[in-house]
Amino acid sequence: MFERLSTPEELYNFKLGAALKMEHTVLEMLNANARAAQSSELAGLFRQHQNETRGQIANLAKVFAAFGWDIHDSPCPAIEGIAKERKANVRRSRASVVDDVLLAGAAETEHYEIAVYEGLITHAHAMGKGDVVELLRQNLEQEQHTLGVVKQAAERAAAASSGASLP
Prior knowledge:
82% of the residues lie in helices and 0% in strands. The protein is an all-alpha fold and 167 residues long.
């Protein structure tokens, strides 16, 4: 049985733990994506984002410290579902479309991470925790940048597979 959340602070602590679980799961997904990628460029993109994700995990640890809380993770079923879907889709795909599958999953993951950080930032701001807002904003900006990189890679991959050329 789980302990019921009774205060906004307990809820924030729980959500922060879920964000930490999310980033650890993403780190595992990025490793698997780098191994599965057919393109060395795409594998490199996933490896680069692993380094950013490690920095995001460090920022989340600093957020826990700013509140005086022990670092812990909480369940994050949404990211576990995204990871499970990615794995299933890669398994059922021919090698020629694996990179497309990975890019679609990466975009979905980035959108989810952006939503999580936007929510955490909103509540940290409401609690007057400017130091926390800044740490989380760094993570958010990295996720937004990565989403843009993923979209560009997906457009290039789609153009290449269709024989079209992008400007």
